Amino acid sequence: MALDKVLAIAGKPGLYKLVTQTRGGFIAESLIDNRRMSVGIQQNVSILSEIAIYTLTAEVPLKEVLTKIKAKEKGAQTSISHKDPKDKLEEYFFDVLPDYDEDRVYPSDIKKVVQWYNMLQKNDMLNFEEASKSDEEE
Question: 18, 22, 135, 14: which is closest to 82 by C-alpha?
Answer without folding.
Answer: 14
